[in-house]
Amino acid sequence: MDSDDGFIDKRFRSKLSWWVFGLVLTTILVYTLRGYLGWAVFGVFLYYVARPVARQLRQRGLSESTAAVITLGLVILPFVGILIVLASIAIVQLGTLEATDFERIVETLFPDGLPETVPTTEEEIYLFVEDFATDPTVGSVLEWGSGVLGAFVTAAYNLFITLLFAFFLLRDERRLSRWFRFEIVGEGTRVDEFAQAVDKGLRSVFFGYTLTILAIMVLTGIIYTLLNVIAPPGLAIPQVLLLAIVTGLASVIPLIGRSIVYAAIVVYLAVMAIQTDLTTLWFPITFYIVMGVFFDNIIRTYVRPSLSGRMFPTGLVLFAYILGPVAFGWYGIFLGPLLMVVATLFVQMELPRLLHGEAN
């Protein structure tokens, strides 16, 4: 009996030692790699965006490695390129905005407004540019250039690691899934069901909502550009690509998100038409018919249901996208929805069992 107790006690100490070792190892890894959290979450996002393509290729007889390589080259890299181009366009167009642009817009919309609230000099908006312009020394140029180069190299390295991470997720997803289900949680257990629900939720949010936003950005950019082709002289839509990005981001606001952007553009164009030539009022009316009636109905009827589905309440997705970047930084746009999916499914699936004491 004593020998049995000693054997059990020895097994318990051994198991406890391994748990302590695992906890220490996990703590070290988390602390060491904490700076790469955003890029890891971005890699998970890219994996969910590209996974349907990789699975289709595997079903057609391609090997896991070949399917992953093709998906990386034909889906992930172009997709990341589009994201970089959109971000660059937004930054460039924001950088080209001057104080006179804000003054003109405010004076157009509010002729009797508050001009003192509008910046009157470029120095008030571009302090760095002003300092650089007044003191263009060799030292300041080298310091600025080295900072830009260092930031570019760091971002390029992190992006390369992210692409590798997404590639290995695509290539080894079936192996990882089998290992997790059979070796870690057990097939058919509550944890297994919860993990599958999280996977489905992330697919809905990452592949659905985010691609919907991107599709709206691209389509509105094209439509705004085409509308400017037929616009009367002096009545073009300003900052087309920047407004297209804003329109896509506004789509996370249920029902009224894009309408707010459309309304602001229509009011601006209408006031400009009234102040210059009443006969040009047809352009803001045309803009509203094209965007507010036809385009919005296409998005609501075909694009959004086919891409995003209805797995989560729109309000939760809205707060996830809005609060994520505020709470975590740039990668919060991916981490916020991820946490929302996990938290929502926990409340839906597991919290009732914990509260009511149901068997696992």
TrEMBL record:
Subcellular localization(s) per the UniProt record: Membrane
The keyword Transmembrane helix is assigned to this record: yes
UniProtKB keywords: Membrane, Transmembrane, Transmembrane helix
Origin superkingdom: Archaea
TM annotation in the entry: 36-54, 66-92, 148-170, 206-227, 233-253, 260-276, 282-303, 315-347
Pfam families (UniProt xref): AI-2E_transport
GO cellular component: membrane
Keyword Membrane set for record: yes
Cited InterPro entries: AI-2E-like
Membrane topology designation: Multi-pass membrane protein
Family: Belongs to the autoinducer-2 exporter (AI-2E) (TC 2.A.86) family.
PANTHER family linked: TRANSMEMBRANE PROTEIN, TRANSMEMBRANE PROTEIN 245
Annotated protein name in UniProt: AI-2E family transporter
Lineage: Archaea, Methanobacteriati, Methanobacteriota, Stenosarchaea group, Halobacteria
